[in-house]
Amino acid sequence: MSDKPYYQHHVFFCMNQRDEGGRPCCMNRGAKSAQEHAKRRVKELGLSGEGKVRINKAGCLDRCEEGPVLVVYPEGTWYTYIDQHDIDEIIDEHLVGGKVVERLKI
Fold first, then answer.
1. Which of 8, 28, 78, 89 has its CA 20 to 30 A from that of 100?
2. pLDDT tens digits, residue range 65-81?
3. What is the CATH architecture of 9-104?
4. Rounded to an integer, what distance in angstroms lies between the CA atom of residue 58 and that of residue 60?
């Protein structure tokens, strides 16, 4: 059995949907399109698969007021984002370049 992680980076996007009137939720802040964009872009860049990057959906990650949020493992780096440009920056800088995107970190 290998000590090496199955994925170099495992990215979880909070996809929680709440009813109106409660806490904010990531789904109402563009999480679905952001996750789909990240998954598509990672595949286009040839970064998906064993030993590389996995983009996943997650239920509530309980950082609702800071959302939308995603977390990158194994580092445990939390990010918020506004648009596809922010997602591309996380992919390019963190997943490819190995540098945390400080302006998006929470």
1. 28
2. 999 999 999 999 999 99
3. 3-Layer(aba) Sandwich (3.40)
4. 7
Mean pLDDT of 1-16: 89
List Cα–Cα distances, 42 to 3, 35, 47, in angstroms.
24, 11, 5
Longest dimension (CA), the chain: 48
Residue bearing the bigger pLDDT, 89 or 1: 89
User: Is the model's pLDDT at 3 over the cut of 80?
Assistant: no
Distances (CA, A) of 3 to 18, 41, 51, 80: 38, 28, 12, 30
20-35 pLDDT, tens digit per residue, is: 767 889 999 999 999 9
> d(Cα 20, Cα 25) in Å, to the nearest integer?
9
Domain ranges of the chain: 9-104
Residue 90: left if φ>0, alpha if ψ -120 to 50, beta else—which one? alpha
